Amino acid sequence: MTLLASAPLHPDAIREVLIVGGGTAGWMTAAAMTRLPAGIRVRLIESEEIGSVGVGEATIPPLVTFNAMLGIDEASFIKATQGTFKLGIEFVDWGRQGDRYMHPFGEVGMDMEGVKFHQHWLRQAQGGDPTPIEDYCLSAVAARLGRFTPASSDPRTVLASLRHAYHFDAALYAGFLRRFSEARGVERVEGKVVGVSLRDSDGFIESVRLADGRRLDADLFIDCSGFRGLLIEEALAAGYEDWSHWLPCDRALAVPSANTGPLTPFTRATADRAGWRWRIPLQQRTGNGHVYASAFTTDEDARASLLAGLEGEPLAEPRPLRFTTGRRRRQWVRNCVSLGLSSGFLEPLESTSIHLIQSGISRLMALFPTRRFDPVLIDQFNRLSQTQFEQVRDFIILHYKATQRDDTDFWRHVAAMDAPESLERRIALFRAGGRFMRDGDELFSEASWVAVFTGQHILPQDHDPLADGVPYAAMARKLAGLRGIIRKTAEAMPTHETFIARCCQPPA
Length: 508
Ligand SMILES: Cc1cc2nc3c(=O)[nH]c(=O)nc-3n(C[C@H](O)[C@H](O)[C@H](O)COP(=O)(O)OP(=O)(O)OC[C@H]3O[C@@H](n4cnc5c(N)ncnc54)[C@H](O)[C@@H]3O)c2cc1C
Fold this sequence. Notes:
The protein is of the alpha+beta class. The protein has 15 helices and 21 strands. The chain folds into three domains: 2-57 and 169-244 and 326-391, 3-Layer(bba) Sandwich (FAD/NAD(P)-binding domain); 109-163 and 420-496, no CATH class; 251-322, no CATH class. Strands 5-4-14-15-16-13-17 form a seven-stranded mixed sheet. Strand 1, helix 2 (24-33) and strand 2 form a beta-alpha-beta unit. The two termini are 37 Å apart. The structure holds flavin-adenine dinucleotide. Flavin-adenine dinucleotide binds next to helix 2, strand 2, strand 13 and helix 9. 7-chloro-L-tryptophan binds at residue 86.
């Protein structure tokens, strides 16, 4: 850091970065930018009057790496955000009513004899073994038992197969990152942006104008202004690709409730009549919400369904939110990069939005421009962003497309709709013999796809013939042994509450 701080900047270096928006996206970006060389000034504008979306409480494991990269201590972070740990997502009523399966983080079984684990599992299942695949995943078994411990760094123990993420209070997380960023030199500007000036010569953003008349200029603008896309859309007209024909949910209601039972170390997503409900356990309260399709239900029915599904007393009135699922056609235009809700929106079924912010930040850092703004960098950023949004989109659509429910118009509609061709191909390949076609750097692993496919009754007609190399009975003994080790290990882990009380509870 000292070396970087004292090094002279490139003659064309960006010297001023202006982040517009102080929600999760704005403050995550600001925190990451504290790692830029000194000499680059980073400012963030936010408006208390407008506020932030205030939801976004469940995450996936890469956030652990983001925090670690910033040097954030996990226990302090959990304390500051009322956080809990998350080992996966439980899906209830998705394939059929009464179903319950886990999409766990972490490894599932182990590849044997050069054959993927799920192929061994498949062959045993096709031979009549009813054991669900999640019984071979320590994260899933521990989650169901309400246990938690972080992964071991010793690869010889099954504890090394664990992965975790967090649940946290979104407002507290933004506040935590704000303190972190301000302490490291980010300047916060309170104010409401009311105008954007473009340079006549090339249409780049020159400055933004605040309601009190101040003008703030910069070389690089980061649009974290939320759904509106104040810079990327309203000023630069990047365009929006609407995906609501595949993902018809367009509204949500969010409400906190009192905690009742033990803190589950997983998020729950329960399918409802025209959408689904989330349940996110925090130390002090539970976050709940209902994501639904306004074409298939009314706001009143959605509200009633949300309140009826709460386990504890509601602590506030349900708060409505509206959205259009899709992505900004170009997430980087000229000297403006959009991150967070301004760059697109995918419903929170797999808790991916905060991750999309994180990966957008990583891409920006990897392709950090000079003031020349080489179009090749911009093009690469946009191409990678598009691929990632589409991959996540397909994974989310799978949950709907793979339903066997036909109890409401909504479920009949999503089961019958055409899925994107990329997803149809993936489903066909898996059905044929449990095979995959994945890019190496895709977010969701094969194990994640297998969890949802099998959890929602998409089962291959055949298995990899190489799995037949081990006699059936011998493999059955091996798998029973593995299940036993996983079960015993999970039972020996502390409960989630005990772990939090020991490590990360705020002082009373
Ligand atoms: C119903 C729902 C549930 C969700 N659940 C999850 C989840 O479980 N997990 C997950 O990863 N993600 C989830 N998300 C997504 C997550 O909430 C967002 O990705 C995240 O909060 C980032 O939001 P943001 O910072 O882009 O936008 P916002 O929070 O909307 O922040 C926008 C910022 O811009 C500022 N601003 C706007 N206009 C102006 C202006 N004119 N002048 C100055 N400032 C301005 C605002 O004041 C605010 O600070 C959910 C989203 C929704 C809608």
